[in-house]
Specification:
54% of the residues are buried. It is globular, with a radius of gyration of 22 Å. It has 2 domains: 139 residues, no CATH class; 330 residues, TIM Barrel (Alpha-Beta Barrel). It has 12 helices and 26 strands. The chain is of the alpha/beta class and 500 residues long. The longest helix has 17 residues. Helix content is 25%, strand content 23%.
C-alpha cells in the first residue's frame, strides 16, 4: 500500500469454512458485490488497467479460493442466518479493508485501514441481514448521509452514446410530455463536450451548446441534468495541455494513466492541488449557472488511485473527499449530485445518490469477459443486478441508483424475462428511477413497462441470505430473482418472480 496500514485487527473463528457464506462489497460503484460460499474463489481481472478502472489497485480481489476481500463492510453467515458482521463506523478520511480467509478448521478475519485510524466493529449476531442494516444506518448517520426523495430521470447515454445532439434531447423531452411520462429530470450524458476535460466547449456534432438546453427543458416541465467526469482529462484535451502539472503522477514523475476508455488512456486531476480545487468549484458553479441543478459525476475513482500527489501528506481517501467537496461547494447544497464510478462509503454526506453497480446494457451477460478475463465490472444486465442487489443496505448511505430500465425491444438483445428482472431490481432497490430508451422506439407494451419502472417504491430487504439463485442476494420479501442460466422454482433463467 502507498500509505501505512493503521489499526490492523485480527479475529480467528473456530469454524468449519465449508459451512459459511460470505457477503462482500467492492471498492467503488462498478466493483463486484457478491454472496458466495467462503471456500469458492474470488475473481480478479487479468488486465492490469481493469485494476484501476474497476477496483482498488492497492487492495484487489484476492484471486484465491477461500480468500475474500471487501471494502467498508463484511459479513459471514451460518446456514441458519446467524453469523458475524464487520463495518467501519467512519469513512471520510479512511479506507477500511476486510479479508476473510479459510484455514481448514478455522476462519481468519483481518481488518486494516489506510488513512487515519477510524473505529470499526466486528460483531456476532443472530440475524446478519438486520444487523448489517443497523450498521449501515449507523455509518450513514455518522457521516450525515443525504437521503432526498428519489427522482425519475431520462438520460441520453443508452440511446445515443457519444453521438447525442441537442435536438435528440429535445425530441425525447417532447415525446415524454406527449405521452405524459412522469420524468422529473432530463439528463444530457457524455458527447456534448469538445474533449474529456474541456467541458465548457461543445463537440462538433452536438448542434449547439450545453448551456442552450436547460431553459428549453424547463419550458417542457423538466429539470435539466448534466453528466461530467470532472476528475478526468484526456491527453488530447486543452485542460491537459495547459495544466499537465495538475495531474496525479506516477513514480517516474509523469502524468499517470488511470484507465482506458474513449479510445485510449486518460489522466486524473490531483485534488490535493489548490488550483485544481478552485477549478472544480468553478466548473460546478458554471454548469449550475447554465441551469443544471442535477449533476451526474462519473469516473470519480480517478481522484483516489495510488499516485504521487502535490501534497504527499494527504491520503487517498482524503484527496478524493476534497475533490468531491469542491464540486458540492460549487454546485450548491441544493443541487442533486449523483456519484458514479466512485469509492462508495467515502462519498456519504456529499452525494445525494450513488450508482451501486456496473452499467446495465441491452444484453444479459458478457460471459467471455467475466469468465475468461475475471472481470464482472463491465456493462451487462447480469452484472448490474448481481452487484446492486447485493448492496441493498446502502440506501442508508444515499439514494441508490441501480442504473436504467431497458424497456425497448428494438436495439436490444434482452428477452422479456430479462427486462422484467431489471424492473424487479428497480422495485426492490427502491432508489433513483432512470430510463434511457429512445422514447420513439417504445410501443404500447414498452411504454407500460416504463411507467411501471418509474413507479417509486421503498427499499426492500432480503428474506434470506442463506439461499440464492446465483452468486448474489436474490431472495427478497417482495420477490425472488433467478440470475442463473436455468429455470429454478418456476422462475425462468435471468428472471424475477414477484411475491404472490
Amino acid at each position: 500500500m502507498t500509505e501505512a496500514a493503521l489499526n490492523q485487527q485480527l479475529w480467528t473463528l473456530p469454524l468449519d469454512p465449508t459451512q459459511l457464506r460470505v457477503l462482500v462489497s467492492g471498492y467503488q460503484s462498478w466493483s463486484e458485490a457478491e454472496l458466495r460460499p467462503l471456500t469458492e474463489r474470488q475473481s480478479v481481472p487479468l488486465l492490469p488497467w481493469r485494476h484501476q478502472q474497476g477496483h482498488d489497485p492497492d487492495f484487489l480481489p484476492s484471486g484465491q479460493a477461500g480468500v475474500w476481500r471487501s471494502h467498508t463492510v463484511l459479513a459471514l453467515l451460518r446456514p441458519d442466518g446467524s453469523g458475524w458482521v464487520g463495518s467501519a463506523l467512519e469513512a471520510a478520511q479512511t479506507f477500511t479493508h476486510w479479508e476473510a480467509r479459510a484455514l481448514g478448521d478455522s476462519v481468519e478475519v483481518t481488518c486494516q485501514q489506510e488513512g487515519p485510524a477510524a473505529p470499526v466493529v466486528w460483531e456476532e449476531t443472530n440475524d446478519v441481514t438486520t444487523h448489517l442494516e443497523k450498521l449501515a444506518k449507523g455509518l450513514g448517520d455518522q457521516m450525515q448521509a443525504r437521503r432526498p426523495a428519489p427522482l425519475r430521470v431520462w438520460c441520453s447515454w443508452y440511446s445515443y452514446y457519444r453521438t447525442v445532439t441537442l435536438e435528440n434531447m429535445l425530441d425525447n423531452a417532447r415525446l415524454a410530455r406527449q405521452h405524459a411520462l412522469p420524468f422529473d429530470v432530463f439528463q444530457l450524458d457524455d458527447g456534448f463536450q469538445a474533449d474529456l476535460g474541456d467541458w465548457l466547449e461543445p463537440s462538433a456534432h452536438f448542434g449547439g451548446h450545453a448551456r442552450d438546453l436547460p431553459a428549453q427543458l424547463h419550458d417542457l416541465g423538466f429539470t435539466a441534468g448534466l453528466w461530467l467526469a470532472p476528475f478526468l482529462a484526456a491527453p488530447t484535451s486543452g485542460l491537459f495541455a495547459q495544466h499537465p502539472d495538475w495531474m496525479v503522477r506516477g513514480a517516474d514523475g509523469q502524468p499517470l494513466p488511470v484507465g482506458h476508455n474513449w479510445g485510449g488512456p486518460y489522466h486524473a486531476l490531483d485534488t490535493t492541488h489548490p488550483e485544481v480545487l478552485v477549478w472544480l468549484r468553478d466548473l460546478a458553479a458554471t454548469v449550475r449557472g447554465w441551469g443544471y441543478s442535477y449533476l451526474k459525476l462519473d469516473f470519480l475513482y480517478g481522484a483516489s488511485l495510488p499516485a504521487v500527489r502535490h501534497d504527499p501528506s494527504v491520503g487517498r481517501a482524503a484527496a478524493f473527499r476534497r475533490g468531491l467537496a469542491a464540486l458540492r461547494e460549487g454546485a450548491g447544497q441544493d443541487a442533486f449530485l449523483l456519484g458514479c464510478g466512485a469509492p462508495l462509503a467515502q462519498s456519504i454526506g456529499l452525494v445525494d445518490a450513488m450508482r451501486t453497480g456496473p452499467d446495465v446494457a441491452p444484453f444479459w451477460d458478457d460471459e467471455s469477459r467475466r469468465l475468461w478475463l475475471g472481470d464482472s465490472t463491465g456493462p451487462s444486465a447480469r452484472n448490474a443486478l448481481h452487484t446492486a442487489l447485493s448492496r441493498w443496505y446502502q440506501h442508508h448511505w444515499y439514494q441508490p441508483d441501480p442504473d436504467v430500465a431497458i424497456c425497448r425491444r428494438e436495439l436490444s438483445l434482452l428477452g422479456h424475462a430479462e427486462r422484467e428482472a431489471i424492473a424487479g431490481m428497480l422495485d426492490v432497490i427502491g432508489g433513483l428511477r432512470a430510463s434511457s430508451d429512445p422514447i420513439a422506439l417504445l410501443d404500447e407494451q414498452g411504454l407500460a413497462l416504463l411507467r411501471r419502472c418509474l413507479s417509486l417504491s421503498r427499499p426492500d430487504m432480503p428474506r434470506t441470505l442463506t439461499e440464492s439463485f446465483g452468486e448474489a442476494v436474490t431472495h427478497f420479501t417482495r420477490g425472488t430473482f433467478n440470475l442463473t442460466d436455468r429455470p429454478l422454482d418456476t422462475i425462468p433463467a435471468h428472471g424475477y418472480l414477484p411475491k404472490g
